[in-house]
């Protein structure tokens, strides 16, 4: 699932690195996610592996699979988890931190407080109204719901775009002016 062909660094972090991160942001990672950060992180996902959400979710958001671009980690690169936490802290609810991104700017987040603790959510940045959806009760079950998908059969006929009403109105208005 991890695209090791594009991963340039291979290093394990010790538990102290994780504990320092948890202390700095006053969070406690679940054991499975902590293990992932220690031994992996900053990973790109092969394009033919997609996350398959629970059935009920696809009724709400009209998507039956999600492509994940990359998971964040401890390496100091464009997928550094601390940089992402700081960048999104004013956009996400206080009980979520980003752990991965989807194409187009949407995020996979992990809950860090109370009822959200250790649960995995997808945050849609341009959706009106409810834009955060529970997709898994744990990091492990989230990972276990990745499936290999035949991407060669994809074409523009089976692509669905979800746009906010504001963006749709803006684009419609802009296209009318272009005519």
TrEMBL record:
Return the protein name.
Knr4/Smi1-like domain-containing protein
Pfam families of this UniProt entry?
SMI1_KNR4
Please indicate which superkingdom the organism of origin belongs to: Bacteria
* SUPFAM superfamilies the UniProt entry points to: SMI1/KNR4-like
Domain Knr4/Smi1-like residues, every copy: 12-145
Source organism of the structure = Metabacillus lacus
Q: Which InterPro entries match?
A: Knr4/Smi1-like_dom, Knr4/Smi1-like_sf
């Amino acid at each position: 699932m991890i695209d090791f062909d594009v991963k340039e660094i291979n290093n394990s972090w010790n538990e102290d690195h994780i504990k320092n991160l948890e202390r700095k942001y006053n969070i406690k990672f679940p054991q499975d996610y902590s293990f992932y950060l220690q031994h992996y992180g900053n990973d790109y996902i092969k394009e033919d592996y997609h996350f398959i959400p629970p059935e009920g979710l696809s009724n709400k958001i009209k998507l039956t699979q999600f492509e994940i671009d990359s998971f964040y980690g401890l390496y100091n690169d464009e997928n550094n988890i601390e940089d992402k936490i700081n960048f999104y802290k004013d956009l996400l609810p206080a009980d979520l931190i980003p752990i991965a991104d989807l194409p187009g700017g949407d995020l996979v987040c992990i809950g860090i407080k109370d009822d959200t603790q250790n649960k995995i959510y997808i945050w849609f940045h341009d959706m009106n109204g409810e834009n955060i959806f529970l997709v898994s009760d744990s990091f492990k079950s989230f990972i276990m719901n990745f499936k290999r998908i035949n991407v060669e059969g994809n074409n523009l006929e089976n692509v669905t775009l979800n746009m906010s009403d504001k963006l749709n109105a803006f684009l419609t208005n802009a296209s009318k002016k272009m005519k």
